[in-house]
């Protein structure tokens, strides 16, 4: 094949590409959206959002997408709108040349719920961020209640935001420990902030409380609790105690019921 033939073939190839591209663009300018596909990736127990919620959001903003020219659909704007929904962790949107819109959503995973004395509370997610409680769905996670102002050592209500930051930070440490140790997560029915400014665990079984104090040295504290369960208690004497105190370094203190 001589040099001139090669050049001619390349010219014909690029001409074909340009013609095909122009044809596709021409077709795309007329193509309208005929289907919206919404996929929501969520973990078990985190069903805070469904397809109807997303469609309702789009409709409320005057953009149903259906029958709209695909050249007029802005994927970035759709993603920004959906990302404003608090349960959403990430969203990706793309439009196909045959008129379909795909919206792929991943939801935040919540680890526990905080219920203060004067409100409905909020969740703490797997990134350690705060997420408002939603009436649509209540996740079955460990609940933290009680007087967390005493835990923060504040009485001034103007310091509520500062206190909540500490509560979220410390409870996130405890929640991450539970995530890595499923036995202790299953063991715990509730986290409670007592009036002494300490963290207590209320077990699912047994009429007693486990006093952690703080989230310091969790490995050591739970190792001691495990040893205590293996060697110090049985079905007959477990209800003799009102408190199992783990807050002291290197020891367990048990308080009997009076």
Could you please describe the fold and organization of this structure?
The chain has helices at residues 3-30, 51-60, 75-83, 148-152, 160-180, 182-187, 218-231; strands at residues 35-41, 88-95, 100-107, 110-115, 122-125, 130-132, 142-146, 188-193, 199-203, 209-213, 241-245, 253-256. The chain has a nine-stranded mixed beta sheet. The protein is an alpha/beta fold and 258 residues long. The protein contains seven helices and twelve strands. A hairpin with a 5-residue loop joins strand 9 and strand 10. The protein has two domains: 35-107, Ubiquitin-like (UB roll); 111-256, Rossmann fold, CATH 3.40.50.
Supply database-style keywords.
nine-stranded mixed sheet; three-stranded mixed sheet; Ubiquitin-like (UB roll); 258 residues; Rossmann fold; 2 domains; 7 helices
């Amino acid at each position: 094949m001589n040099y001139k033939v090669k050049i001619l073939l390349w010219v014909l190839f690029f001409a074909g590409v340009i013609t095909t591209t122009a044809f596709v663009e021409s077709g795309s300018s007329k193509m309208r959206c005929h289907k919206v596909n919404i996929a929501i990736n969520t973990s078990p127990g985190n069903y805070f959002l469904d397809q109807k919620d997303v469609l309702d959001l789009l409709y409320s903003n005057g953009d149903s997408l259906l029958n709209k020219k695909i050249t007029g659909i802005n994927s970035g704007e759709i993603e920004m709108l959906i990302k404003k929904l608090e349960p959403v962790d990430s969203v990706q949107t793309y439009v196909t040349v045959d008129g379909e819109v795909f919206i792929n959503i991943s939801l935040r995973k919540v680890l526990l719920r905080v219920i203060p004395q004067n409100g409905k509370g909020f969740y703490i997610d797997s990134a350690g961020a705060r997420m408002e409680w939603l009436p649509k769905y209540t996740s079955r996670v460990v609940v933290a209640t009680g007087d967390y102002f005493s835990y923060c050592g504040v009485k001034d209500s103007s310091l509520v935001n500062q206190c909540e930051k500490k509560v979220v930070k410390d409870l996130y440490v405890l929640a991450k420990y539970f995530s890595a140790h499923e036995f202790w997560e299953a063991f715990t029915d509730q986290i409670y902030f007592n009036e002494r400014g300490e963290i207590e665990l209320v077990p699912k079984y047994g009429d007693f409380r486990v006093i952690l104090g703080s989230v310091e040295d969790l490995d050591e504290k739970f190792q001691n609790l495990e040893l205590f369960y293996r060697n110090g208690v049985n079905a007959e004497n477990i209800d003799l105690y009102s408190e199992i105190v783990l807050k002291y370094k290197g020891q367990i203190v048990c308080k009997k019921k009076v």
